[in-house]
Predict the 3D structure of the following.
Amino acid sequence: MHVGQGFSCAVAIIGGGPAGSTLGTLLRLYDPSRSVMILEKEVFPREHVGESQLPPINAVLEEMGAWDKVEAAGFPIKIGASYTWGKSPEQWDFDLYPIDAYEERPRPGVLDSQRRLTTFQVDRATYDTILLDRAAEVGCDVRQGARVAEIRTSGDHVDALVLEDGSTVTAQHYVDASGTVGILRRAMGVESQVAPTLRNIAIWQYWDDVPWAVAIGNATRVQVRSIGFGWLWYIPISQTRASCGLVCPADYYKERGLSPEALYAEAVAKEPRIADLLAKGRASGPVLSTKDWSQLSDRLHGENWWLCGETAGFADPILAAGMTLAHQSARDLACTILELRRGQIDPQWLRSQYNDRTRRSIRQHIQFAEYWYASNGQFTDLQEHCAKIAQETGLNLSPQQAWAWLAQGGFTNADAFIPLFGSYDLAAARRVMEIFSGQKHGYSFDKFNVLRPNLEGAQPGAIARYHKGRVERVEGLMRGNYFVAYRGHQGLIMKFVTQTSDINQVFALLQHWVTTETPAAQHPYYRNLLIQALESLVLEGWIVGSVNPDRPMLQWEYVPSRQIKWAKENQSIIESRWGALAGD
């Protein structure tokens, strides 16, 4: 750009990270006539923390036309994560795909069912560059080294962006994807609410010539280890390179009075397994640190502007959801902006749906993170901190009460038809609670034998489904924060309960539907989704239960999620299939 030049476009995006590049790419793919400018203050490649992904990203990368390029980069396949967390010091594994079913295949590979349920651990310098290059490839005007110096406004309207070199950019839509910096957010006076108990800091360093902690064929796991004053991550981002970092409360860091380097060294020394892995390699670059506060913006749009990615909100990295939230919010915003131009759906509804859905998803991740921290008995130096989280969020509860507390925000967010909690299915979330509490507890519905719909106070409503550049209105019933669709898994369960109040007959209808309507290989998967849909409807009050002493109780076997097991259960599988190449 030349000093004093003026540029105009349909959409101006501040920030070229995963959120900005995803948004720009999808806008151009679905409407090539739309001019999109991405203003990135850095010059790529550049290092960035946040390397661990979740499987929902795969679908977004595929839609962008970027999955094959990311796969070709050779990033480690993430099959799950290994933890020491909760009441017991024993290690447990959260696998995205069952390791006894995982097949080692040549790479680069294809996006089949196995790869859709696994994900990547990425070197962000390479990953972010691939995505930004993809945005340029589809026609976005990508400007690197272009720092926004001023945002000119009139009330709640953005008039122009002024760059450091004096150039101006005007647009129909302005998007802040600048991360937690929130350049446009701050200019528009939007507050960001910080979770008071999740004011953490992150201290990390990159390491070369280090091994994976475990090899499950050609896949691996992230390592998460609780130590007395926080937790460590160890994330392989190539065959020989890893990111290793510490997360701890900011208050603890201040109280200790140590430098980031000293506290980081102390943390690594407290975890022998990670210390041993690092001792095999060498540090690559300095120790880095950043504020790591979970936060949520009060609103995500104005007259002609939007917040996207981490500018909208940030959830603690213990759930590895940062990039998932960034990609998904960008995908949803692209659909929203495209739909606004078509003019076929009420603009205010489109704006409110983007705002409410994105904020709910971030809030659920923050809420779940609060539960993780409050339940961690391994934080020996942070007992007071954990007790404070439990007190402030009402988590000094039984597992069943805590489960109900987690459900208060509503389950539906990432998919209009499948109940999810944040980025996790309900079965996995429940199993995490069993690990933390040390108690096995059944589903909410299985203490009843009579089920009836409860539609009192419900009104017809709709939520948005974002799909291939379109926003679809999914009709259903709304009551407060809760929504149930007329179709999908929850809609099907409501249909069954309307037909019969006997829980055994409801399960018979459920099993009949699975047997007759779905492929044989998918029976366990679909059955579990329907059971989780029933659980969500009971928790959200759409179905109420009671006990009729003249009827039999439900006879069924509760099988814990296959995704989460004690590590010793998994180690024998690894050794028998791939040999003891490495141990967790």
Observations:
- The chain has 18 helices and 24 strands.
- Residues 14 and 424 are 30 Å apart (CA to CA).
